[in-house]
Amino acid sequence: MTLLELAVLFFLILSATTTDYSLLSFPAEEYESLQFVLPDTIDANGIICRQFSQVYCLLGYAMGKKQSEREPRTFDSSLLTTTLLADSLWKRINWFDLTNQTDTCCSPQVVLYKAFGQSYGLSPLGYLDKLINMDTTEKKLNRLTARFSPELCMNVVIAVGFGQGKLTVSGPIQNQTDFLIVDRAPIIGFQHDVRMFRIPYQDAASKLSFEFFKETFICAAQPWMCTQ
How confident is the model at residue 164 (pLDDT cuts 50, 70, 90)? Predict the structure, then answer.
């Protein structure tokens, strides 16, 4: 690792700011998005994620319109819970509780499903299918949340979403400033395996593709999801 890269990691670890952003945001009806948060030593949500994974945490799947006229069923919650607990599926897809900061299942996941899946006409298994579908053909970058780092003079990526709909960029960023995405949360003394990617501001939509994110983050943390 070069001295420049070590300096970047130093500022990533020691800076002290927080960012507030909504979980599973969706700006329009035609919007569908598989969303993730990245572990971080600075952003409040990233700090919580970092307790459970050094690579990424699954937020969930957001959509802007109903998928069917399916009505909620009394067994939806129990079915989702049983499925997630089987072989610890919730851990195997990195779907952790980022609200209560507990390494538990499955009340927080059920709440998210009811809000963003059941109310949009999806069954528990239908929503889970959205979460674990790793097909890259229909997923474009449509959410990019970052925070500007004055020390690095770059926008550090802290959350992403992929699917259908126009790209929405949020967070306290600096326009026309490149993005920085790190493939795992840096730890002092263990920086040798951290990879950093500088993404030109104007090329974010093409450079930060789901194919790139899948290979760099998802396959690294959960290889089984890339062998389906």
Answer: very high
